[in-house]
Structure formats: C-alpha cells, structure tokens
Specification:
The complex is a heterodimer of chains A (292) and B (196). Chain A has helices spanning 16-27, 53-69, 80-95, 97-107, 123-131, 133-139, 172-179, 203-219, 230-238, 240-247, 258-265, 284-291; strands at 2-5, 32-35, 75-77, 120-122, 148-152, 183-184, 224-227, 255-257. With 292 residues, chain A is of the alpha/beta class. Chain A has two domains: 2-123, Glutathione S-transferase Yfyf (Class Pi), Chain A, domain 2 (Up-down Bundle); 134-291, Rossmann fold (3-Layer(aba) Sandwich). Chain B has two domains: 10-101, Alpha-helical ferredoxin (Fumarate Reductase Iron-sulfur Protein, Chain B, domain 2); 108-189, no CATH class. Chain B contains ten helices and no strands.
Chain lengths: 292, 196
C-alpha cells in the first residue's frame, strides 16, 4: 500500500531515530512511501504566538492541497503534532464550508486549492488497521520475549478525535507492542501530557509532568518506554539528568520509538535500521537480553 | 430587590468578535472539568473556567494580563473532557494571540519561543531545530542568551553526538514566496488578525 509520508521538521533532527527506523520496518510490512513535494512545517502547537488560526490552517492546507493534486494517497504523519495539525484542519473544513472557502481563497494566492479529499492518518492507525497485528506478528523473527514495555501514547496521537483508538483508554500501542512478543505493562499515565512543545520554555513546570510519567512506568515494572512522538521522546529522554538533580530521583530509562522495537523484532540491523545508536540513553542492553 | 451587580458585556463582545474561537465560550456552564483535567492547572493564576467567567464579567485586564492563557501544552484533555464540547485549547490559544496583539506578554519565554517559531516558519517554511533555540535564547539580550546557551550546551552536544542534530542550516522551501503570500492573506482575512 502506498502512502504519503509527512515526517515533518523534527524527524530530520531530534527525532531522526523515528524516521530512520520507520522506513525499513514499515516497508518490510509492504508499505510504500512517497514524500509530499516541497512540504512545509505544520506550525506545531506554539504558532499561535505569531499567527492567527486561519494562517495556521492555511499552512497545513498547503501540504494537503499538494498531496491531493498529486496522487491523493492517505498521508501518514508519524509526529503527533504534525498529525493533529493536519487532521484538525481536515475535520474543521468538513464541518464548515465557509472555512473551506476562506482557506481556498488564501491558497489561491499561491495557485493551489484543496477540496478536502485527503485522509490524514497516524502511523499507529495504519499499522493497526491497514497492516494489522497478525501480519506484524508473522514478520517477527526475533520476538522481544520478556521485555516489559510501557507504551506511552501521549496526547496528540489520539486526542481529541479518537480516530482509531480510545481517547481515555487507548490500547492500540499496547497491541502493537504485544505483536512484537513483548509485554505491554499497565501504565495509567500513558495519556498524561509531557509538556509537549512548551517543555523548553516552561521547563520548571513541565519537569514534574515527565517525572510523574517516568515514575509510573517504572512502578509498573517497565524496562523501557516506547513512544510514537518526537516531542514525547525528546522530553522523556533528554531531561532525565535535570529531573534527577531537581527531585533526587535516579532515572536512567531508555526511551525508544515503537518503530525501533519493530526493526529489532524484525531482525534488522540494530544501527542502520533500528537506529539504536541515536538514543542518548542506550536501549541495547535490555533489547539484546530480550532477543538473546 | 434591586440587582446591584452590573456586568459589563463589552469585553465579552470584544472577545466574541476578535478572538479566534472566542465565541465558543458562550456554551460554557462553568463546571470546571477543564481546570481539573489540565496538566499545568497548579501553575495557573486563573484556570480556563475562571477565565471564561472573567470574560463574561468584563474583567479585561485580568484576562489579558493572565499567565494561564499561555500555559497551554496543547494536550487536548480539556477539549475531550468538556461536556459542552468547547474546544478550550483553541480558546486559550486565541486569547493568548489576542493578548500579544494588544501588547500583553502572558508568559515571556513561551511568547518568545512561539513568536520565533512562527517567524522561522514564515522565513523558511520549515523549522531549523538548532537555529530556533539560539534565536529564542538571545531574544532576551546577549547576556541572557550566553547563559541559556551554556545551560543547554550539554543537551545540544548529546544530540549532536547521537546524530540527532542536522548540521547544515535548514534551507527555504522552494515555494516560500507563494507560501508567504498565502499566509499574508490569511493574516488579513482571519478573525484573530495579525500581531503587529
């Protein structure tokens, strides 16, 4: 199956391990990806400090319009922020023809138009509903036996629309983790916010959010935490030292992308495909122990 | 008995008219579920429920001068939990945008971060993850910038060593000129208007 992959700005930088591991692991399941030509940033969650709501919508509609004019495949957005920004414009346009007119009036300035015909999907949605856990399980050659994973869903990958999973009790990531042979530990804080895009400017407040999430995962026996969002990964992994200094804790928990776990379980190269060397807190130890 | 409480509706009307998603608060029944569900509620001077009540009470200064309108992590919990389906997050973002436009600075660092973020989107069409923090750090002056750079150097080095920092500067997208025209139009046409 063919998709547009809209990986966004972070997956070329701080979230590079997501993109590097996503391509081979998903392609091994028969997915084919195309880039949206000359795509632009989604505006993420903080652009309101510079732009009004319509401008942020038009920014996203440009990508949708380019995708629609080309092949019209579903867009897969691995970054939760990109996903929510795009799917939000789509939903609001569907509910409000006046908004669609306004968006198109702006797009026309650059010779584009959008009819609303593109579907925006999260990577978890596609893995769970298009590929399915059975096909994922069949592809596993090195099951992650005994590995206890806390599947951190975060916010924007399921909220607010709940397109493919429950907004209150999401299960999709856990089912995908289990398909890889690992154990998904119960983890009530899996939908608690990590601070997202304002972690950096509001670090004094947001560190406690991350502390609570890490603590909850460890209290439930997790060896590592998996995520599907570059902001979650950044916030959960990179600030553990600072949190330890601030709260007297001893966190040293590896944070991996779900697609990294897939690449490992599919028997792929731990560096080239699973990108484990991109992680600052090394996950190799627990993963090697699981695959033997 | 004579009603002594005289609410001034002019600020509420101003919000309905000029703030993106501002008219959504008409549906608010002040139940407080948004406040209870917010991850940063303990740091808010007025949680969303109170902000909405203050708007109805005509308390312009309290609302636009509030810090909480810019403490939104965009987690969408409030939007999901609201029994009246108010997109609380959109209202908070709209209010923060409007406050900045009126010359208020609800949260200094987040305002600088978000402002620089948008400038970069407008300039390049994409975000340069090395350049953005540098600009944010130095937006408060040279000394503050150097201090912030030193403070975050460890994280930058770790990211670089683990191949998670693009070394080359981000280039403009090919269609940047036409993107800017679209955004300029949206800034003129959109309810929230443009920040000077």
């Amino acid at each position: 199956m063919k998709y547009f992959l809209y990986w966004g700005c972070s997956l070329e930088g701080t979230g590079a391990n997501f993109l590097v591991s996503l391509k081979p692991s998903c392609e091994a399941l028969g997915m084919e990806f195309e880039e949206i030509e000359d795509w632009n940033c989604c505006g993420a969650s903080v652009s309101y400090a510079g732009a009004n709501d319509l401008a942020i919508k038009v920014l996203n509609a440009r990508n949708l319009a380019i995708a629609e004019a080309h092949a019209g495949y579903d867009i897969v957005a691995p970054c939760s922020s990109c996903y929510i920004q795009m799917i939000k414009v789509n939903h609001e346009i569907q509910e409000d023809p006046q908004l669609l007119r306004e968006v198109n009036e702006c797009l026309a300035e650059g010779g584009l138009s959008y009819k609303g015909g593109i579907k925006v999907r999260h990577i978890q949605d596609v893995l769970y509903n298009d590929i399915g856990v059975d096909r994922i399980r069949e592809r596993v050659v090195k099951p992650l036996h005994g590995l206890k994973v806390a599947g951190y869903v975060g916010c924007q990958s399921v909220r607010p629309y709940g397109e493919y999973d429950s907004v209150n009790k999401p299960v999709v990531q856990d089912r995908l983790i289990e398909a890889l042979g690992a154990k998904a530990v119960p983890f009530p804080k899996k939908i608690q916010c990590c601070g997202s895009g304002i972690f950096l400017p509001e670090m004094d407040y947001c560190m406690k959010l991350v502390k609570n999430i890490l603590e909850d995962a460890l209290n439930h026996g997790a060896d590592l935490i998996s995520t599907v969002c570059p902001m979650c990964a950044m916030n959960l992994e990179m600030y553990q030292d600072r949190i330890n200094d601030a709260y007297g804790t001893h966190f040293d928990v590896p944070i991996v992308y779900l697609t990294q776990l897939m690449a490992v379980a599919f028997g792929m190269d731990l560096k080239k495909d699973a990108a484990l060397n991109y992680n600052v807190i090394p996950p190799e130890g627990v993963l090697q122990a699981a695959i033997g | 008995m004579e009603n002594k409480v005289n609410y001034d509706p002019s600020f509420a009307e101003e919000v309905f008219r000029n703030v993106d998603a501002g008219d959504e608060i008409k549906m608010c029944m002040n139940c407080g579920v948004c406040a209870g569900s917010c991850p940063l509620r303990e740091h808010m001077d007025y949680p969303p429920r109170q902000i909405f009540a203050l708007i109805r009470a005509g308390k312009r200064e309290e609302v636009l001068g509030s810090q909480s309108i810019m403490l939104c992590t965009s987690c969408y919990t409030c939007a999901v939990k609201c029994p009246r389906s108010i997109p609380v997050i959109d209202v908070m973002h709209g209010l923060a945008h409007y406050a900045l436009k009126q010359g208020y600075v609800p949260r200094k660092d987040t305002a600088a971060f978000g402002g620089e973020f948008w400038k970069q989107v407008y300039r390049l069409g994409r975000i340069d993850e090395k350049d953005l923090p540098r600009r944010v750090f130095f937006s408060g002056g040279l000394i503050e910038g150097v201090r912030a750079m030193l403070n975050f150097m460890d994280i930058g080095i770790k990211l670089m060593l683990h191949r998670r920092m693009k070394l080359l500067p981000e280039r403009k997208i090919k269609g940047i000129q036409s993107l800017r025209k679209m955004l300029d139009k949206a800034e003129r046409l959109g309810k929230g208007g443009a920040i000077a």
